[in-house]
Amino acid sequence: MTQSSTLHLLDTPLPSSSLLALLSQHLPHSLPVLRRLQYAANFPDNGLGTTPYSHVLYASRFSVDECLLASHEKGKEHIKGRKHFAAAFVDLSRFPETQVWVYSTLEDYAVLLDPEADTGSSYTEPFGAHSLPEEEAQECDRYLVTLLRRMKTIAQQMPVELDLDPDVITCPQRRRQNWMEARAYLCLDLDLDSGAGSRLDNGDGDEDGDGNGKGNDDGNGNGNGTKKKKNNEEEEKRQQGPKIMIGSLAEIHRHRLRSPLYGYNVRMHKTANIPDDIDWEVCQKWLFRTEALNVSSSSSPTNKQQQQQEQQEQEQQEAVEKVMVVEKEAVMEKVEKVMEEEGLIWDSVRNNQQDVQLVQSRTSIKRQEDTLLGLPSVVIRKGPKGQMVAWGFMAVDGSLMTLHVEDQYRGKGLAKAVACKVMRDHIGDYGDDGWGAADVFVGNVRSQGVCRSIGGRVGWLLSWAIVDLATVGDAL
Q1: How far apart are CA 134 and CA 463, in angstroms?
Q2: Strand, coil or helix: 388
Q3: Gly residues compositional bias: what residue ranges (predicted)?
Q4: Does the domain spanning 304-461 belong to CATH 3.40.630.30?
Q5: Which of 9, 131, 331, 379 has the smallest set of CB atoms within 10 Å of its CB?
Q6: Other C-beta atoms lying within 10 Å of the C-beta of residue 414
């Protein structure tokens, strides 16, 4: 732990019970980080929950216990009781999968301005609007940047070769190979003398952006442009990296950290799976209340107004749960009839190449074999020995992942049934707060329809980003 009169910076291999309790007080916005930490705490030895390279980070002017006490005693609208913080889970060895999840209390006050979410709000400032005083928002920014600066140290200390226990890690050789590729992609191995390095975007630095390397003349007719360009490229490499992949990054953070208007100019790149003709891909965070889990709150009301507010929220939650119960019962009844007629059975992903390769072939996102085999899953299969026709997983951050139905079985309610069953059966593997979630691209109308039909609502906007830690300040 690093501690001073103005900052608590914690870096531990596993989350403390106090930190988990604190994040639970900030649901639903803390959900991605909380679920990832719960998975780490609940499955520390399965090779997915944690590895020797896992870090749990926390930054604030206040200790975890001070923030936890404040969240118990005061509602978030009581200014004197607000104590801000940021937290993260980091495991750089997981590349090409998500390496980092982050959260700060600024997210609790972000204003959703998303025309796709049917909120009725304007679209004047879609990503950066919030209801906090700007001074407090900047405090949250500082905590988040503090975590990024700590990640810079973590990245610099990562080994060239991973030391993985084959008894714990399912595919250690595959992971080592991924890591060697990651070191180049994430600018962890810059050999300036030989000109080695990695560029995320083709044509960066070219005048016309097409990678053709125009502009070889310096403008004076003496042909020094090529030399100047080479010098500029080497200087740019010195300013690069290391880089990390942050997943489920709230758009309010991406908006503020990239903008000099708020005092920062953190460089971010889109991930490799996004097509060249798309600048960025934004997701909606869909939230669900699961009827299979009890809703509990450890905070007690301190005044009549807060008690009324909590009662109203409880009634809203119960109304949503009732809708989900009715919808799920109808869906499951229809699906059970279809399954009986077509000889389909419920199952999970099996430890064989046929299942794993089928899932991998149906998504453009790189899903690793050990990840797919280690995550909770629900499958509909064509008989006990048959091929899968529908499937879904719970990701390490507790979100619904890789929901898919084969073409010939679509329109039968299987996607809804799988989504309901995987959440109902496996949310409890993470926590008992009753929150489920799914990340859906803004343009994915089909998946949005599935989420809406089982009682989901849009909570906020997010994306995945490659963050250049060379632009966050000195390492901590």
Answers
A1: 23
A2: strand
A3: 212-224
A4: yes
A5: 131
A6: 25
Of 34-43, 213-222, 458-467, the poorest mean pLDDT is in 213-222
| For the chain, domain boundaries | 2-175+240-284+464-471, 304-461
Q: Indicate the helix (H) or strand (E) that contains 329.
A: helix 304-342
Task: DSSP letter for 110, please.
Answer: B
How wide is the angle at C-alpha 422 spanned by C-alphas 172 and 174, nearest 5°? 10
Q: How far is residue 419's CA from residue 423's CA, in Å, rounded to a whole number?
A: 6
Angle at 455 between CA 325 and CA 88, to 5 degrees: 115
By CB neighbour count within 10 A (0-12 exposed, 13-18 middle, 19+ buried), where does 303 fall? exposed
Nearest to residue 144, comparing CAs of 40, 33, 38?
A: 33
User: Which amino acid, one-letter code, is at 436?
Assistant: G
Phi, psi of 439 (to 5 degrees): -100, 120
Cα–Cα distance, 22 to 18 (Å, whole number): 6
**pTM over 0.85, yes/no:** no
Q: CA-to-CA distance for 401 and 406, rounded, in angstroms?
A: 16
Tokens standing for residue 430: 């993470």
User: What does each C-alpha distance from 320 to 123, 159, 287, 463 come to in angstroms?
Assistant: 27, 48, 11, 26
Q: Which residues pair with 438 in a beta bridge?
A: 286, 400
- How many angstroms separate the Cα of 60 from the Cα of each of 57, 89, 124, 469? 11, 16, 31, 20
pLDDT at 298 > cutoff 50: no
Residues in the chain: 476
For helices 251-258 and 134-156, the axis angle rounded to 10 degrees is: 90
Question: What is the per-residue pLDDT for 192?
Answer: 31
Which stretches of 13-71 are assigned E, i.e. beta strand?
Answer: 54-60
Q: What is the pLDDT of residues 240-268, one digit of tens each?
A: 679 999 999 999 999 999 988 888 999 99
Q: Judge whether 9 and 476 are in contact, CB under 8 Å.
A: yes
Mean pLDDT of 127-151: 92
One-letter amino acid identity for 354? Q
Tokens representing 287?
Answer: 């939230």
Which of 92, 85, 103 lies closest to 35, judged by CA? 103
Cα–chain center distance at 162:
23
What rounded mean pLDDT belongs to the chain?
Answer: 80
DSSP sequence for 120-161: ----SSTTT-BSS-HHHHHHHHHHHHHHHHHHHHHHHT--SS
